[in-house]
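INSTRUCTION: Work out how this chain folds

Token vocabulary: learned, describes local backbone geometry

RECORD BEGINS BELOW THIS LINE
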Amino acid sequence: MSARLPQQPLEWLDRGQTVNFRFEGKKFKGLAGDTITSALLANKQLHLGRSFKYHRTLTVLSATSEKPNTFMAIGKNKRH
């Protein structure tokens, strides 16, 4: 996770606690308090999916919660 910004005052991240997760079958590490997007960006994962209609590459355009067409499965998935 070398793509992190320097620690900021009053940040929500707990830099002492890592969290392991999978995205698209790959293993990643994030920090406690990360969003999925911030953890993926910190791991230099820029390709986040493909559009439904044209299958164009999707990446982060903003850090707001209003982005439609974003789906994440949370929990244990035996396929990965």
In short: Residues 22 and 67 are 21 Å apart (CA to CA). The longest strand covers residues 14-23.
